[in-house]
Amino acid sequence: MARGKLRIYLGAAPGVGKTYAMLAEAHRRIERGTDCVVAFVEHHGRPRTEVMLHGLEQVPRRRLEYRDTTFGEMDVDAVLRRAPAVALVDELAHTNVPGSRNAKRWQDVEELLAAGIDVVSTVNIQHLESLGDVVESITGVRQRETVPDEVVRRADQIELVDMSPQALRRRMAHGNIYQPDKVDAALSNYFRPGNLTALRELALLWVADRVDEYLNEYRSEHRVSRIWGSRERIVVGLTGGPEGRTLIRRAARLAEKGAGGEVMAVYIARSDGLTSASPKELAVQRTLVEDLGGTFHHVVGDDIPAALLDFARGVNATQIVLGSSRRKAWQYVFGPGVGATVARDSGPDLDVHIVTHEEAAKGRGLPVARGGRLGRARRIWGWLVGLAGPAVLAVLLNTVDLGLANDMLLFLAVTVAAALLGGLLPALASAAFGSLLLNYFYTPPLHRLTIADPKNIVAIAIFFGVGMSVASVVDLAARRTEQAARLRAESEILSFLAGNVLRGETSLEELLERVRETFAMESAALLERESDVAPWSCAGRAGFGPPLERPEDADVDMPVGDHMALALTGRVLPAADRRVLAAFAAQAAVVLDRRRLQEEADRARTLAEGNRIRTALLAAVSHDLRTPLAGIKAAVSSLRSDDVAWSEEDQAELLEGIEEGADRLDHLVGNLLDMSRLQTGTVTPLIREIDVDEVVPMALGGVPEDSVGLDVPETLPMVAVDPGLLERSVANLVENAVKYSPRGRRVLVSASAISDRVEVRVVDRGPGVPDVAKDRIFEPFQRYGDAPRGAGVGLGLAVARGFAEAMGGTLNAEDTPGGGLTMVLSLRAAGARAETVPPAADIAEPPGGAAGAEPPDGADIAEPERQAL
């Protein structure tokens, strides 16, 4: 069973007229013959709303006892048994009385929708779950009854019921919302002008965001890529601390403000592994950013501000979100911090947001490892301490006599310091240099490189051995830490690849971009060839670098089998990175194979579709062509027969039947030939500029007189079309509309200019077509509903859309207000750019006005079976 459709009337505050608008919509639907019932509507003692309930069927409520009081709730089972086409359910965010079927009314609505019942409901902006904190800060009232945003977002239609704060307060003062004894308290508390203005702004902004989503979907469906500018890309810098969740949510809200905003969270780990975040916290933040529609990235870099800016510029980010530093005040002595550095070096092309949080200025709070691979600065300091330290110590010890044992301990301390700073080699150099100085200055005979006492030889040997041992331990710890950090990064990458293999989500270009990003390369390309002597070709690439004709031309190449290689440019990778690169290369080959299998499957579907078309053509020839031929042959045989003396009236009737059959054959063969040209791609339009009023009247020759009304102004701009294809498209549309219009109801053909497009609308008052079938009616050999076999083979609309798209136009079906179907043929105006497409469908203005004003009609949710082909 098809899922029902949900329409929501959204308001900024109680009393704006949501329930009234819903009931008015119910009356309009009932007048059109729609089966509509009131599942639950609460009029709250408002007279005008109560009057609107008259004439509507109401499903009896379910009575529940709770705390010695009887409450009436929606009876879901009764509504399901009644099974109406449309059910009215007021107050979507309502919490049901304990003992009800579901805890929340929106859950009741979900059951109705799942049963195929269309639902019209109402909700106020303050009841949306994500806005609870904002509404509380405005009004001082915490909303206990909320509805998840996703439930409202999934609604098929959202209509804003708007009213100015002044008009709403007047309605309140007139007693149209609350009882007179509650008016003064309401006006001085919740219904203050400031509160109502803020809530109204929230509602308008929220609906505007939804409109942006609908427009983006429209542009995506119509391949409109140049209407919007570059979308916002927001990079969130994470440290692994608990404030990361706040930053991610803040970035998500920023992204929602712009069209197509994208959030990319990045955690930058130092290559030496000296600082590490909590893996558990990072996993939580990764899940959060992915749940909000963003992506998580792990980047290695010693200079965190530079790495963050490089990443942001590499992904063409427009904004960076960072948290306030967790360093204490005295720690700023060591530098300005990551946030200040990023803001200083971001330049004019990047906006940097510093977000406050509860962990600010409380210290890092992250585990700090004291081992790790020693960086360049530490190695330099290690060499300075290892070579200059013993010399300085020797100068100092020459001024005071501490004894050989103490002198050796001091030299050993310098060696340990050199080992801690610089690792093995500086410590060995310090031990050797210190041993020479001890022997020369402090071991008899003095100032000679000889040792008289064998005990001193043992002491110096032990000193040298201890220095070497300490240096070895420090170096081993550093290497183990480096290996652990590398293995952790490799495990994350391999986990990412394994997940992609299972899900099959990543395309080849995205995977190559991930390779380039992971290894900080300029470009990455997957090269392949058919044989050992065949030239190489590029199957996919990412980044900006010189084109690669052979894997040998790249800085790094990783073979994948005998005739495929992953090539990277930018720098030479160490051997330790090639293991992960091999995994990426194998995954790239898998993605390429999967893409080719998909292409083969698409070709197979195309062939199957072609076979279906050919089968349908044979069926059409076998029946729809045979029927008029049989009629023509019978009429001709009758006229030629000498056994019957036909009167002039009979002869005229037989000749008329021959003419009608020939016309049907001509129309049918023409459509078959046109469909064949479209299927084979041989339609080549001859585009020229022409007035619409010159072509449209010529397309009405095949329909009865007085069955079509024309409204084509002469002031319309000229269109760039093929006149013959346009005439054939309009003729098919008009013929289809006349065929299914009620007797005595004329089809209207109108034209108007919108921006740089001209729209031709063919409007009928027939039974129409439901939304789920609006695209299917344009497929070949579709005759919707109970159209008889003699009504044609179902190619008229398919040919019309094919010709429209061949001329750079579009053809879509819309509901006719009041019942029927409207075919909208959008054409490119003369002088407009070829890639321009029609603007998005108009969005209904929100209803407004004073109390009791009836809002305008909106688009229907439930429609009867309409428009056959």
Automatic annotation (TrEMBL):
Cross-referenced Pfam families: DUF4118 (PF13493), HATPase_c (PF02518), HisKA (PF00512), KdpD (PF02702), Usp (PF00582)
InterPro entries: HATPase_C_sf, HATPase_dom, His_kinase_dom, HisK_dim/P_dom, HisK_dim/P_sf, Histidine_kinase_KdpD, KdpD_sf, KdpD_TM
PROSITE patterns to which the protein is assigned, alphabetical: HIS_KIN
Compartmental location: Cell membrane; Membrane
Region (Disordered): 836-869
EC number per UniProt: 2.7.13.3
GO molecular function: kinase activity
Catalysed transformations (reactions): ATP + protein L-histidine = ADP + protein N-phospho-L-histidine
Transmembrane segments: 380-397, 409-437, 457-478
Name assigned to this protein: histidine kinase
Membrane topology label: Multi-pass membrane protein
Domain Histidine kinase per the UniProt entry, residue ranges: 620-831
